[in-house]
Amino acid sequence: MTETLQEFFDSRGVSMRVDREAGVIRGVKILGRSSRNGRTYLPEALTHAAPLYEDARVNVNHPRGNPGGPRDYQDRIGVIRNVVFRGGEGLFADFHFNPKHSLAEQLVWDAEHAPQNVGFSHNVQARTARHG
User: Fold this and answer.
1) 3-class secondary structure, 117
2) Per residue in 40-68, pLDDT tens?
3) Which H or E element spans position 111?
4) What is the reported pTM?
5) DSSP codes joined into one string, 66-91
6) Smallest Cα–Cα separation from 29: which of 97, 105, 99, 118?
7) Residue span of the structural domain in which 75 resides
8) Is 132 within the bounds of a domain?
9) ∠ at Cα 58 (119, 54), nearest 5°?
10) Which long-range CB contacts under 8 A does 73-80 form with residues at least 24 apart?
11) How confident is the model at residue 107 (pLDDT cuts 50, 70, 90)?
12) Number of domains the chain is built from
């Protein structure tokens, strides 16, 4: 069955590396093996999904109303690159952000001092199956 999935993951316990000059936070977690919504992602599914996240646009917050609705230009803060699957953990990537965005300094501070505040979420259409 195909359904819209909305997942949330923070970087609690993740070792991120911030390059302020380049506008990159390396090693952010974008999708874990299990979610707060009770889903478990198989390693094969995550390996298959990794290239789908490459160059994904990152916006601040969620759209109002429809999860697939249009986004305002000022919501755009960056892009995901170099997505890799780490067995047992999930998908990780480098987050290339606009250092001139109004929230860039707050983002960098959180990445360096409060990684639990750096979170990524997504709204995607996916094929799902229930097991057990």
Assistant:
1) helix
2) 888 998 999 999 999 999 989 877 777 67
3) helix 104-113
4) 0.85
5) STTS---GGGEEEEEEEEEEETTTEE
6) 118
7) 2-127
8) no
9) 100
10) 77/101, 77/103, 77/104, 77/107, 78/23, 79/55, 80/30, 80/53, 80/54, 80/55, 80/56
11) very high
12) 1
